[in-house]
Design a protein that fits this description.
91 residues; alpha+beta; Rna Polymerase Sigma Factor, Chain: A; 4 strands
Amino acid sequence: MSCLVATRVKAFCSMPYRVNIDLPARVRSHLPEHAQDIYREAFNHAYAAHAGELDQERRAHMIAWAAVKRVYTKADDKWIPRWEAQTARRS
């Protein structure tokens, strides 16, 4: 994690991803900007909520992807807002 600060006593990170450019490349390259915002905010919240757990980072990534999938859906190779996908199906 890019903002992880190691000290002699402990390692901590209050906000792993401060801005979207800090997100993993696979997230940035696949998601539109708004979806990246959702991912980042969900990840940071989940990361803090699961502090001290062995699988903290894995859980945070899973929760972040679930948050994105509540608002976006993948159509072909592109992530689009769910309301757009529903509108397209009706047409």
